[in-house]
């Protein structure tokens, strides 16, 4: 392993880890600089297992033994080690999850390649909350969703909070960002997908009985579920571009669920019949 002791928070070698609590700054910096941050030993291991390449590691002495095998396997990536107070001064928060890694951001996956072998796809329109987006990915991984497509204004799945909430499943579920919206939904139809919008709409069918051209959703060979942003929900243009509109039946005076919870329910109900 290549251990580098850090004693000065201003050391330029740890620039990747500075100002991690400034979400706006990090959202701008990380894509431009070609990196993302993996937080916690579990997430670091999942990123590496997915084939992502480390730029460096960043941890307290107490975690050297726990991650020793990882560090030994990647001697090209320096392991920056320091006292907790020094690490906190660099990142802006106490490193209670033990370790971080700066990872090379993978190249974007072309949409046509992403869809080629998929049967179930989630499409997110303008979901800007990183916690919600990470939770959507975690449900997608657990409930047989093969890929996720994002509208141009969606949050970054590789932002630290999204990665952490997803428990690293953002590395497991392939995803791509559409360059046009809602026109990009046409790529799904071209690939043979039926599209169903989750929305509170007068035309919406209840999810448990919804059909597209007479076929129940779980029986469709290829289905894309389109999810809207927090609060406002799906735009009228996105709804109009879909083959069907569906809603989750509610009781108790509740009209809707948080987008992450709604996604999990919809993914479970529409998982492909085996």
What's the topology here?
Blueprint: E1 3-5, H1 23-33, E2 35-39, H2 41-49, E3 54-60, H3 68-73, E4 79-82, H4 84-91, E5 99-104, H5 111-116, E6 120-124, H6 130-142, E7 147-150, H7 160-165, E8 175-177, H8 186-190, E9 194-198, E10 205-206, E11 211-212, E12 215-216, E13 223-227, H9 236-240, E14 244-247, H10 259-270
Parallel strand pairs: 1-4, 3-4, 6-7, 6-13, 7-8, 9-13, 9-14, 10-14
Antiparallel strand pairs: 2-5, 3-5, 11-12
Helix pairs in contact: 6-10
Nearest-integer average pLDDT: 94
The strand count comes to 14
Instruction: Please trace the helix and strand order, writing H or E for each element.
Output: EHEHEHEHEHEHEHEHEEEEEHEH
Number of domains: 2
Task: Point out poorly predicted stretches.
Answer: none
CATH homologous superfamily designation of the largest domain:
SPOUT methyltransferase, trefoil knot domain
CATH architecture of the largest domain: 3-Layer(aba) Sandwich
User: Remind me, CATH topology of the largest domain?
Assistant: Alpha/beta knot
Order of adjacent strands in the largest pleated sheet: 8-7-6-13-9-14-10
Distance between the termini: 46 Å
Can you count the helices?
Answer: 10
How is the biggest beta sheet arranged? 7 strands, parallel
> Which percent bin holds the helix content?
25-40%
Taking all Cα atoms into account, the compactness measure Rg is 21 Å
Main structural class: alpha/beta
Strand content: 15-25%
Shape: elongated
Mind telling me the CATH class of the largest domain? Alpha Beta
